[in-house]
Amino acid sequence: MTRKHLILGLLAGSLALTACSDGEDFSDSSFAEAKDNYANLNYSGFWTFTNGNETLRSQVSTTVSFVHDTQTLTLWSMPNDLIRQIAGWEGTATDYAQYDWACQTTLQAKGNSNTTWVYALNLKDYIFPFMQEDKKHMMKVVFSSASEMAYDTYAQIITLMLSIKEIYLDDQLVANNSGTLVLEATSTTKSQEEQQ
Fold first, then answer.
1. Is the alpha carbon torsion for 131, 138, 86, 144 positive or negative?
2. How far is 45 from 184, CA to CA, in rounded Å?
């Protein structure tokens, strides 16, 4: 089973749970249609960090889900490798936390043009544990209110700009006003259509 199938399965499960809690009755055909609609909202890209002086890039792709009707953004993973570099972490580390998704938020529209919508992001602190040489560490990222998302409806591209306010390592402040995490993600559905 691929990661994409696993994500679709999780989304399908959450749809079923939502339907049960709302008292709705999903038939096989309507459930399949709902799952397809969620699948069409997936985007994929790579994170970059910039602070004006340096640029760092993550080698791990990230999947993003954007539900326009509910203005909900889900990040299935965060760039933990970049965050550790920003914090000045040296050496290798292993992420050991397992989660259904890394970050989820509701968007607030700020403005739009003919093809682009801009949204404010109200992100909670992102906390993740990791291991090095059998020792557990905890890292916390505090984002500023300047974080936002742009959605190009024509090109089907999501651009996230997460402004970092502070980073803590084991409850100690290790970085502040350090820069911006940027993710440019393209529609995985569109990419698949272009390949056919």
1. positive
2. 6
